[in-house]
Amino acid sequence: MFHRILVGVDDSPAAWLALQRAIELAEDGHGRIGLLVSAPEPASVIWAGPIAVPQSRAGMCEQLDNWACKTIEAAMQVIPDEVPVIKLVTHGDPAEALMREAERCDWDLVVVGQASRRHRIPFQRPVGERLRDIAVPVLVVHAEPDLGPGAKAARRKLWSRKPDRALEGLRPQLPVE
Question: Which domains does the chain have, with CATH numbers?
Answer without folding.
Answer: 4-149 (3.40.50.620)
